[in-house]
Amino acid sequence: MALLTIDGVWKRYRHHNVLRGVDLTVDPHEVVCLIGASGSGKSTLLRCVNLLETVDDGAIYLDDQEITDVRANPDQIRQRIGIVFQAYNLFPHMTVLDNITLAPRKVHGVPRTQAEAQARDLLARFGLADKAGTYPDRLSGGQQQRVAIIRALATHPRLLLLDEVTSALDPTLVNEVLGIIRELKQSGMTMILATHEMSFARDIADTICFLDQGTLLEHGPPAQIFDAPQNPRTREFLYG
């Protein structure tokens, strides 16, 4: 059974169609990479999955539940989906530990001692054990993005969405964030990533999806998409 099903999803802003009938299924433990030019609809699709945007047509299902149903509770659904943005979005007035434990404590009702113990375990796992009491402005960009990923993981999501998480980083810091994503794949986390890192997408993805002007033109295993793309627009995007 698919963990996530996107069925004929359209998203419009006034008269502009940002997503045009997107169909996609994501199986448990699968890693899907969304590729395409800026403005192709990658970020909008992730925001629709996390219900930060409403869909204009079609439906999205998580574990066979239609989460785009108007009767669904968005806050309850978001408890099962983690999302990480390119701009980190950490609370600057809170320490790393408080950033990570806020949602488990306030949304999931986890006792503070338990939430902090779990957060410290995650920080240690990803090489940030000594940063628990640090404020975000004292961290490098790569460290801030790692904390943002850890914050998303702290709620034990069924699905993790990553929106261009390396695009705001200095090139020397990219690898430390990509290393976390590789470890998450090895641990079986189900992920959808929007990325411009083509070599990383080829390396980590089970499925590559090429979006062009809101349409999912082609999808398949990395070897198929990168070595033998079928659609002329895919070939143009990859090879110029």
UniProtKB/TrEMBL annotation:
Q: Which Gene3D superfamilies match?
A: P-loop containing nucleotide triphosphate hydrolases
Domain ABC transporter, first and last residues per copy: 4-238
Q: Where in the cell is it found?
A: Cell membrane
Report the principal subcellular site.
membrane
Instruction: Return the CDD domains for the record.
Output: ABC_HisP_GlnQ (cd03262)
**Recorded GO terms, molecular function?**
ABC-type amino acid transporter activity; ATP binding; ATP hydrolysis activity
- Membrane association type: Peripheral membrane protein
Q: Which GO terms describe its cellular component?
A: plasma membrane
Q: Which UniProt keywords apply?
A: Amino-acid transport, ATP-binding, Cell membrane, Membrane, Nucleotide-binding, Transport
- At the top level, the lineage of the source is Bacteria
Q: Does the keyword S-adenosyl-L-methionine apply?
A: no
What family name appears in the similarity comment?
Belongs to the ABC transporter superfamily.
PANTHER family, sorted? AMINO ACID IMPORT ATP-BINDING PROTEIN (PTHR43166), GLUTAMATE_ASPARTATE IMPORT ATP-BINDING PROTEIN GLTL (PTHR43166:SF9)
Name listed for the protein in its UniProt record: Peptide ABC transporter ATP-binding protein
Q: What lineage does the source organism belong to?
A: Bacteria, Bacillati, Actinomycetota, Actinomycetes, Streptosporangiales
